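Sequence in, structure out. First:
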Amino acid sequence: MSQSGLPPLTGAVRDLAHEVVSALRGGGHLAGNTALADDELGLAAVRVLGADVLLPATLAGHPLPPERVTAFRTATLAFPAAPGAAPVTAWSHWGMRRALRTLSGPDEDPALPDTGEPGASWLHSLPWQRFTHQLAVLSALALPGLPSEVATTAALRPVDLARGFVRAVRRRDWLQAAGAARWLALLDGVPDTLGLDTGLDFVLLMSDDDPRVALQAHAARHIRDERLLDEGLRA
């Protein structure tokens, strides 16, 4: 996917996001890239996308090329959250480590021990606008079966997130809108009047084929479809 005219890192992130979206839409095929683990720009792109690089496996259960997992592990170790890092940075790195441990199974990687959650107390008192922004930045943590204090806090404020989604759409902030929609797809208590499915269609239409927006939107749809299927089976 050509990204001419963009800064190199931005183009690399968009290319990587496009690969993930293609894997989610096309049955899980994600081409291996033996050079990615040795490419500083590629590793930086992995760190920017965070745990979403592994989304075909962690969300849809599709196998990943070993080279992709190796590159992800290399990026996780190469770009740790520094002491005193911003909470969203610490949580993003936690999500990457958690994704690797999920893929590796019960055998703990000694280089990536479980050091516990960073803590999410800063989220509790944020106004709904800022709350939505922070949750959208941490949308890679919006996965079924991935408990965290961030997810617990999000579950307490679905109406605030719905308001934030509408605000992001009105401001034409498509990436924030798609990230908020991913959380909304996961949560109970979302107002029926929101029209999340229609809203997602609109966000995709208006986002000018931005692959990072598409990644979040397709993740939201997958989560929503799985929830509806599960609810139908239990009905």
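Second:
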Amino acid sequence: MDALLTSVAAVGLAEIGDKTQLLALLLVARFLAPWSILWGILVATLINHGVSAWLGTALADMLDPQTLTITVGFAFLAIGIWLLKPDDDEALDADNVRYGVFMTAFVLFFVAEIGDKTQVATVLLGARFDDVLAVTLGTTLGMVAANAPVLWVGHRFCRDLPLKTIHGGASLLFIAIGLWTLCIETGWLTG
């Protein structure tokens, strides 16, 4: 249960104000089909994060436990710091769409997640918890929870959110997980 809840919280908070919310807003403004877009987000995230969580567990199997714990701890700290830097991706353009709404959302979200903070976090969560299913479900639920409101409430909702505060909270969560991993799980603090 820890893997699921930590994954939901970590990715849900990290996604608020991320480029994928901009993408969700762009798609709903263009197509006015929130359910098709939501299904595209869901399927793309399940596949992308499933592979990422599996990769994390595979890496966990290759490293000795102490090395893995130290690596994951420092990586969580790095993501916490990375979250403080706002996304500066180029504008996303939905004007040249050839396929249906679902397929467009699926492809754009899948590609947008490659190398994104949440994909890296999913790899780390997979390595940390060694539970592909719980991490995949948790990160997917976090992604959907962060993007679904954008689809129905749109621009007004995003404009009123305190994005710096939310990014700061997500950053602190990742840093806390990293510190916990380094200080408690390695035994540095207790041993």
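Remark: The chain is about 80% helix and 0% strand.
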